[in-house]
Write a structure and sequence with these properties.
This protein is α/β, with parallel strands linked by helices. The chain contains six helices and seven strands. InterPro entries: Cell_Envelope_Assoc, DUF218, Rossmann-like_a/b/a_fold.
Amino acid sequence: MLFLGAFGVAESAIIKNAVQKPEKNADYIVVLGARVNGTRVTLNLKYRLDVALDYLNENEGTKVVVSGGQGKGEEITEAKAMSDYLVKNGIKSDRIILEDRSKNTNENLKFSAELIGSKEKKTVIVSNDFHIYRAKCIAKKMGYTDVSGASAKTKPITIPNSFVREAFAVIKYKIFNQI
């Protein structure tokens, strides 16, 4: 029973954060990386980048950190693939900062903060809807003081699996005091 309660609480936090709108006029948005195929962004990463494009076009003073290293089977870093996509879609390269060392969400946020130079800047984290809650919790635990999330949709066929798996991840992170 306790576990079912924890699962319900985690899932409701995930869903609540998935539908919240980001703060406007952030200093930075941080787009969390996801797998790329060779040099091309995958569909879930494209969804994240399209949210970033909308935000950057509506908030012209905001800079973007594209965060992701190079994984197995990837010809370039996730950061480079994301930067290429944003430039191809009209974002000037001087607004883009590449963080190309990270391998997971913790590293995405840690290394991005190092590039930004402060965890006190107004920051919007861009990820898929199911991932926003945990990403924001990790950022707050790291000391980010003004953080919100911008949710990208998830590939429809993966929604049930993604949301259930994320609830287990949230519970694990809570148990081990990682968020």
